[in-house]
Amino acid sequence: MELLNFQMISNVGDAKSFLFKALKAAREEDFKAAEKLIESADESLLKAHEIHRELLQQETQEPIELSLLLMHAEDQMMSTELLRDITNEMLLVHKKYSGDDKK
User: Fold this and answer.
1) Burial of 9 (0-12, 13-18, 19+ CB in 10 A)
2) Which of 49, 52, 72, 94 is catalytic?
3) Count of beta carbons in the 10 Å neighbourhood of residue 13
4) Alpha-carbon torsion (29, 78, 2, 68), positive or negative
5) How far apart are the first and last CA of the chain?
6) How does 14-46 read in b/e, with b if 16+ C-beta sit within 10 Å?
7) Global model pTM greater than 0.85
């Protein structure tokens, strides 16, 4: 159980790093790089979701003990999903104000 929690946290941490790099790339008007970084973040979040799904499936067999580690993993995943949505919006804003939104 702890291993799954740490794997989820690790994948979410990777996604968060990609998203902050994407924000920087968007600010520097390197939109292709920003889009690739967001795709990488999505891949990492997908891995985290697969682990989360596995935990949910385990809980259908027997109750999972709620731990601080699991709560932390879930919190990190939710906040990173929000960051992804904000990053996508910021990319659109940067494109719009650079005149690149038509591409």
Assistant:
1) buried
2) 72
3) 14
4) positive
5) 46
6) bbbebbebbbebbeeeebeebbebbebbeebbe
7) yes
Q: Is 94 a catalytic residue?
A: no
Asked whether the beta carbons of 22 and 42 are under 8 A apart, the reply is no
The pLDDT profile of the chain, 103 residues, written as one tens digit per residue, is 889 999 999 999 999 999 999 999 999 999 999 999 999 999 999 999 999 999 889 888 888 888 899 999 999 999 999 999 999 999 999 999 988 766 5
Question: What tokens appear for 9 in the block?
Answer: 């946290």
Quote the distance between the C-alpha of residue 80 and its chain's center. Answer: 4
